[in-house]
Design brief:
Helix content is about 30%, strand content about 25%. By secondary structure, the chain is of the alpha+beta class. The protein has one domain. It has an 8-stranded antiparallel β-sheet with strand order 1-2-3-4-8-7-6-5, covered by helices on one side. Keywords: Coiled coil.
């Protein structure tokens, strides 16, 4: 499990499972997995050393998101193979019920880090998410913003922040798009943070595809 959280990205083969409408963006996107490891702060170029557990867990969540969601293109079969290789513990239906996972969630695995981080990896149809029990909100937003910008830069795609919303006093959501210049199809990175220490998850990092300008409705954490 250490490789997933310490900056050793999975190197996926060319995806075969994506729909034709997504194929141009996705095939280009998959190549980024070979280019990004030394450009992301989560992959080794950490901004500053810290003993703050919440910041460490934020970086680990971003690294898990990169390795499990980004590097696989949210492909269900590749995610399942990765989970099996890393011997992740999959939750059964009864175990999932108390956590009220989103409708897109088909399979969920639990991940623990040596630093005490607790995460869920969620897989669905062309969808992937990482939930962190504890994570510093500012740190994880910074990690995800840098990741989105670097992915877009390496693929010569456009990156923009589609929305920043304060959903409640302790809840915030930021949505990044990585897309062709016309904005008709691409990838969404949504970052959902909750600063309440009693929250079930203080961060949710979500990977979606879209095939038209904008999105329909608010992304769910």
């Amino acid at each position: 499990m250490g490789g997933l959280l310490k900056g050793k990205p999975v190197r996926p083969s060319e995806t075969q499972a994506c729909l034709q409408a997504r194929r141009v963006v996705v095939n280009k996107f998959m190549l980024a997995a070979f280019l990004l490891p030394f450009t992301l702060s989560a992959c080794g170029k950490i901004r500053a050393d810290t003993n703050d557990a919440a910041k460490v867990h934020a970086r680990q969540a971003a690294m898990l998101f990169f390795n499990a969601c980004v590097a696989t293109g949210a492909d269900e079969a590749k995610l399942a193979a990765l989970a099996a290789k890393e011997k992740m513990l999959e939750l059964n239906s009864e175990q999932k019920q108390p956590f009220h996972f989103e409708p897109e969630a088909k399979r969920v695995w639990g991940v623990h880090s040596e630093a005490g981080g607790r995460f869920f990896l969620v897989s669905g149809k062309s969808y992937c998410s990482v939930k962190a029990k504890q994570a510093d909100a500012e740190e994880i937003e910074a990690e995800m913003a840098e990741m989105a910008a670097k992915v877009a830069e390496n693929l010569n795609l456009a990156h923009r922040i589609m929305s920043e919303e304060q959903l409640a006093p302790t809840i915030r959501q930021v949505v990044h798009t990585i897309a062709e210049q016309d904005g008709q199809k691409g990838i969404l990175f949504s970052v959902y943070t909750h600063t309440d220490a009693k929250a079930g998850a203080q961060a949710a990092l979500n990977f979606h595809y879209f095939n038209e300008a904008g999105t329909q409705g608010r992304l769910k954490p």
